[in-house]
Amino acid sequence: MLKLTDIIMTIQKKFLAFPILIFISIIGSGQNPLATKWEQHITYVKTQYHDLPKQKLDSITIFLDSTAIGTQCYQFITNPVKTKFIAFYLTDRNSSSFDLIKREYGGTYRSFTWGEMKETQIEAFAYTVIGMYYGNRWYYDVGEYVEFYADNKQEAENIFLIRTLTEMNFFIGKNPKENKKFWIKNDFAKNTYPYKKDYPNIPEVVIKASMNQEVHDNYNQNKKLEKISCLISASLWSDLHNLDSTKYHSRYKGRYMDNYCLTLYNSDRNIVLLPIIYYDAFAKAHLSYYVLKLSSSDTILYNWKLFPEKVINRNKGEEGLEVVYDIRNFIKNWGWGTVNMIGANKFWEDNFTIKDTEVSKFQYHSH
């Protein structure tokens, strides 16, 4: 039987590659979606589904960890027994409410230009949430984020509503009437992927929601570890600077870094490599490696003996490349990318043993 991680990888490949063809073709064509032929459809949806369930929207925001904000929902469509829904969200890209959305979890984005851009247009930021009650609990999944221009917020809401519903075959042909089969198709359908024989009864929205929840959980665990590691890194630097402020004069801050902390860690999150890059009083760059080993009872800092302290001979601001090329001695073509986790277990198993490390005289003591 396939593992959930196998399902996640398959879904990611499918959905990241899937283009929203109708949306692209209509926006690119310059057709006006608010022409008379769509007015009846918009009126039908707003008349049939006029409620915005605040309590439900708040619970969605909590479940999705603010990747969907309840106050940005403008349309909520449910099936007759209220066990499935699709909700539409939109905010002005330049408004303060846009800043409320968390965007750390690798969501998919699409940007389009509709018609001719004008200075008075707003830049809309829209997305959907699909929900389903399954196995005695609710599952929610936020769709891809879409950015486009419109003359005003009302027009933007209608554009996104009609584009999405027509793409998902919500209407019966060209008629402004709900297609009842909508609720057993799209993400509400049972999965149709290669692992169908192993998981024949799981709706796609449930699998995607589980996938995203795992992404969120991993992200939060990583950030928790990075916060602890950076506190220890800061404490270490303080000790070094106090020991010899001429040698340990100032810390390195990379060109694209928000702070001075560099962290790399294993998939078990119990070994952290802490490269410390710093300048002496003569502006010469140096690099030292420390290793943090964590357990349920101890947090111990070590020196990494495989790389003694050394001088860095690189252009100003590019000293971090020294770490990249050091790691490439063990992992060919390794690049830092956007994630601090190195999943190659062999790297950690082979190079951070007792003989490769020694206990540092600098240890972190929380206050």
H/E element order: HHHHEEEEEEHHEEEEEEHHE
Q: pLDDT average, as an integer?
A: 84
Shape: elongated
Determine the N-to-C terminus distance. Answer: 48 Å
Structural class: alpha+beta
The structural domain count equals: 2
Report the uncertain regions: 1-31
Number of helices: 8
Our Rg estimate from Cα atoms comes to 26 Å
**Biggest sheet, open or closed, and with what strands and sense?**
7 strands, antiparallel
Approximate helicity band: 25-40%
Strand content: 15-25%
Compute the number of strand runs.
13
Quick synopsis:
The protein has about 375 residues and is of the alpha+beta class.
Q: Main traits of this protein?
A:
367 residues; alpha+beta; 2 domains; seven-stranded antiparallel β-sheet; six-stranded mixed β-sheet; 8 helices; 31% helix; 21% strand
Question: What does this protein structure show overall?
Answer:
The chain has helices at residues 4-17, 21-29, 36-48, 54-63, 153-167, 204-243, 321-327, 345-351; strands at residues 73-78, 84-92, 109-111, 122-134, 137-142, 145-150, 250-251, 264-265, 271-279, 285-294, 299-304, 310-311, 357-359. By secondary structure, the protein is of the alpha+beta class. The protein has two domains: 4-202, no CATH class; 225-359, no CATH class. The strands form two sheets. Strands 7, 8, 9, 10, 11, 12 and 13 form a seven-stranded antiparallel β-sheet that branches. The two termini are 48 Å apart. The model is unreliable at 1-31 (pLDDT under 50).
